[in-house]
Amino acid sequence: MRFLGDREPGHDLTYDDVFLVPGRSDVDSRFDVDLSAVDGSGTTIPLVVANMTAVAGRRMAETLARRGGLVVLPQDVDPAAVAGTVDWIKSRHLVLDTALTLGPRDAVADALNLLPKRAHGAVVVVDDGRPVGLVTDGDTAGVDRFARLGDVAQTDLVVLPAGTDPRTVFEKLHASRQDLALAVDRDGRLVGVLSRTGALRAELYSPALDAAGRLRVAAAVGVNGDVAAKADALLAAGVDVLVVDTAHGHQTKMIDALSAVRALRPAVPVVAGNVVSAQGTRDLIGAGADIVKVGVGPGAMCTTRMMTGVGRPQFSAVTECAAAARGLGAHVWADGGVRHPRDVALALAAGAANVMIGSWFAGTHESPGDLHRDESGRLYKESFGMASKRAVAARTRVDSDVSAFGLARRALFEEGISTARMYLDPARPGVEDLVDHICAGIRSACTYAGARTLPEFHERAVLGVQSTAGFVEGRPLPSGW
């Protein structure tokens, strides 16, 4: 990466401050671009969901891994629960989405509670494991909430063997003017579901798989308490990447935590952070980190900069830390501050191997929270920062060695928003919709730079510095003049 005219800026930059300059390209199609990361994480698209309780659950982990990304399960979850979640994720089908199921005698109210949990928007009615009907939101309109699903379900179903290739599934659905296929095993029992769009995505994306061909998932551990024991439990659970996480990563506690983790000789990549300087990056790599998380204060739920004045504009932080890591044969993840596909592309151009996303994905069907409606009927989910009072209280309860007094004392201080409404985008209500949106932007950015891989994108990227007016000029005007 270099700056236009080789003019290094005299101040630190955010993503809004910079732009990519198009270069000569012989990349004919965005589909010729390989988005696989080279940091050992196993991602085939450079997206990692941050370890936020309001974002990173098992539905999110399953869905994103199927499209090539990675989810980091939060550190405030009991290790036994993490083990159960990891087992569940690794048992998921590599192509088919997990179905929401109820029986014929269940009530419409039960279906209404389940429908928002998956972007495919349907509940399969099963009898002895075999599909006998399908219920969508439209089927429940005007129907008594206590009516039985067997009486209201669609029975004109597209049922196919579980091994049917996605292109054939798409063609069958297109011919029958249906949107959801039900995949069954040899005994006719439901295995999963696949929508028309899901069939297309199965041809466009490659799942992130472990050595046994199962979906990959990561998990986080903090720097307090018995770090070695917690990390050992996560490794025993089968996580594919271990993240040692604290807001201020350039501290002795982090160095000690990394030493304790390294003593376990983990066979998976170890990520540590967060830092924003070259020295912080070098110190964490020296202590045993394979990947360093970069970012202090840019997240949508984070109040660190306003509370403390501490942090650094994210583009400059990623650029400097990535250069330091590259000199030591390691990598960085850009953590926070992305609000548009362009920001993800710029983070990759700056040298990040993967880009972490939190609140942007909170307002999707796959995030763990319940779906709510505001006063005007708009759908939203609640999100909160991981240094907020709400998150600190939850995280502290996991540490059994913390007294009630210690818990109350910690609750006096917070650096994050404890509740915020993250609205679902009607055009992109599922996380896969956002993944399509982001990856389309990254692929196009690579073609503009003439790059077929992410390392090549970083090498060829030419950046310019722009004014606020320059940034505003690039924004569309969807509502006209």
Structure characterization notes:
The protein has 481 residues and is α/β, with parallel strands linked by helices. It folds into 2 domains: 2-93 and 208-473, Aldolase class I (TIM Barrel, Alpha-Beta Barrel), CATH 3.20.20.70; 100-198, CBS-domain. It has helices at residues 58-66, 79-90, 108-114, 137-140, 149-152, 166-176, 196-204, 227-237, 252-262, 278-287, 304-308, 314-327, 341-349, 389-398, 404-410, 431-449, 454-460, 468-473, and strands at residues 2-3, 18-20, 47-49, 70-73, 100-102, 122-127, 130-136, 158-161, 180-184, 190-195, 218-221, 241-245, 270-275, 291-294, 331-335, 354-357, 372-373, 379-383, 420-423, 462-465. The strands form 5 sheets. Strands 3-4-11-12-13-14-15-16 form an 8-stranded parallel β-barrel, surrounded by 6 helices. It is globular, with a radius of gyration of 23 Å. The relative contact order is 0.17.
Instruction: State the low-pLDDT regions, or none.
Output: none
By DSSP, the count of extended strands is 20
**CATH homologous superfamily name of the largest domain?**
Aldolase class I
What is the CA-based Rg, rounded?
A: 23 Å
Proportion in helices: 25-40%
Strand % is 15-25%
Question: What does the average pLDDT come to?
Answer: 93
**Dominant shape:** globular
